Task: inverse folding
């Protein structure tokens, strides 16, 4: 086991931990946060300093919390027309509806099965 001084940039903390192998720069490691939860950290820097005792070089790690993936972000979408009109004014045509009796456009792939669909007529 190798005892390594870990300096955590995210929590501004420093502690000594034991590792089976010295992690390399760019690798990820799992550490327990001060709140008790486990999180992924990226190794930002690795250096060695001579120990105060004997002819021994001690490894030091500088780590930072791994940023969350951006896949969960929702792109900005403009507000629908119904929300941008002043209150109390009627809309020209309800959103998503056509005039009754008008044929529905055929699917984008052109596969309308030879029959043109019509919205159901209800009174």
Result:
């Amino acid at each position: 086991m190798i005892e390594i001084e870990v300096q955590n940039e995210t929590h501004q903390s420093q502690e000594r931990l034991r590792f089976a192998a010295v992690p390399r720069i760019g690798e990820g490691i799992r550490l327990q946060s001060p709140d008790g939860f486990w999180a992924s950290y990226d190794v930002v820097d690795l250096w060695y300093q001579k120990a105060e005792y004997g002819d021994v070089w001690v490894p030091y790690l500088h780590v930072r919390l791994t940023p969350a993936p951006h896949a969960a972000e929702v792109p900005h979408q403009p507000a629908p027309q119904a929300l941008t009109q002043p209150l109390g004014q009627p809309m020209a045509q309800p959103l998503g509806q056509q005039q009754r009796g008008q044929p529905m456009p055929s699917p984008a792939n052109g596969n309308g099965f030879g029959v043109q669909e019509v919205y159901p007529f209800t009174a």
Remarks:
- The mean pLDDT is 76.
- Residues 2-67 form one domain.
- The CA atoms of residues 59 and 93 lie 70 Å apart.
